[in-house]
Amino acid sequence: xxxxxxxxxxxxxxxxxxxxxxxxxxxxxxxxxxxxxxxxxxxxxxxxxxxxxxxxxxxxxxxxxxxxxxxxxxxxxxxxxxxxxxxxxxxxxxxxxxxxxxxxxxxxxxxxxxxxxxxxxxxxxx
Length: 126
Fold this sequence. Notes:
Number of domains: 1
Structural class: alpha+beta
Number of helices: 2
Shape: globular
Order of helices and strands: HEEEHEE
Distance between the termini: 37 Å
CATH architecture: 3-Layer(aba) Sandwich
Radius of gyration: 14 Å
Largest sheet: 5 strands, mixed
CATH topology: Trna Endonuclease, Chain: A, domain 1
């Protein structure tokens, strides 16, 4: 059985590594762990002129599938709903502001380093 504190620490370490990867890849992170009653968005960033809502998934092995595969339709809808509220709160035009939804998969390697992959446009708001 997984200790909740250990899971939370693992997830936080994966998120930290993912944000380093995003910054190294040219993303400008605006907020982390933004939440409202509809859900949480792990990271919100700008890349060029696009507003990017990022879901981060950390794994210690590939046994349960990829991180992107774990972002099911229900989770996608939750993120999209939260993103719309974020944009309304920031007074951004939902129809005019280019935005996308990325997933960052982080895999903890046996040597305790993180290997990450950014999946741009992993899902859409439709």
